[in-house]
Amino acid sequence: MKTPPRLVLPPHAPGMRIGLFGGTFDPPHDAHLAASLLAMKRLQLDRMWWLVTPGNPLKDTRGLQPLAQRIAAARALANHPRIDVTGLEAVINTRYTYDTIAYLVRRCPGVRFVWVMGADNLRSFYRWQNWRGIANLLPLAVVDRMGSSLYATGGRAAQALSRFRLPERAAGGLAERDPPAWLYLHGLKSPLSSTALRALRSGTARG
Questions:
Q1: Which residues of the chain have pLDDT under 50?
Q2: Domain 17-202's class?
Q3: Who's near 150: CB < 8 A, 6+ residues apart?
Q4: Which of 47, 78, 143, 145 is deepest in the core (most CB within 10 A)?
């Protein structure tokens, strides 16, 4: 019988501020790193965890590179002492972001987690499983992306959560806020997209 993989969480301790940045990372690219560094600085985070998911339920995952290969590529790209790359979702067998976050909140009491996502994900956030539950579990930081800021804040989820939005100047204290709480971080203007890079890799023109 095959031994199940052992769960080893990245470094953490009560009181630490840790950003959670999820995705397929297929492939990881410079915008992932730039968004993480921006969030770590502006949110005054101690660490950032890249959660490399086995697959995104909202996207066509056919053609994804193997998880171990994506984790290795993400680690090679990040190469930062405070960015940890983990495939914990495959170990704890969670499919949806809410379940992953709920697990971490239970498992790591006292850690001040913040969910970090690109503005393009804010637009589709209402389609995520139990997205309101996610917003009630931890604060959210939305990193601007080229073109995304023009429509993301007008989306269904952003409008539903509008009364919990904080001014950008409050970024340094976001991790200490009780959810729901979220804000927008401007300053990153990268056109890079894993979806577009996969399309180039496979020779298709899908965005």
A1: 197-202, 204-207
A2: alpha beta
A3: none
A4: 143
